[in-house]
Write a structure and sequence with these properties.
This protein is mainly alpha-helical. It has one domain. It is built from three helices and no strands. The longest helix is centred in the first third of the chain and has 31 residues. It starts with 5 loop residues before the first helix and ends with a helix.
């Protein structure tokens, strides 16, 4: 791995960490919201409607981080191919 794409890999790692923390906080917040719901049906709505949407939005940084890591991999492969190293 060359050093030319270290910034992409750094931001990829940062985004994955932020995404994992976000998903964990969403799950904890959903648990608190379910227990604080005044009725069973509102708790069920939090669980079956609110939680999947919140986890989806919280997991976007993970997908972006994986995309940056893939971009760095492709750039390194292309650089090796163009320079005749690999």
């Amino acid at each position: 791995m060359s050093e030319g794409y270290g910034t992409l890999r750094l931001w990829s790692t940062v985004l994955v960490i932020v995404g994992v923390a976000g998903v964990i906080f969403v799950v904890i917040g959903t648990i608190f919201a379910i227990f604080a719901a005044p009725t069973f049906w509102q708790g069920a709505a939090f669980l079956f409607i609110g939680d999947p949407l919140a986890v989806l939005f919280a997991s976007w940084p993970i997908a972006l981080g994986q995309g940056l890591r893939a971009l760095a991999d492709v750039a390194e492969y292309t650089h090796r191919q163009q320079s005749g190293l690999g």
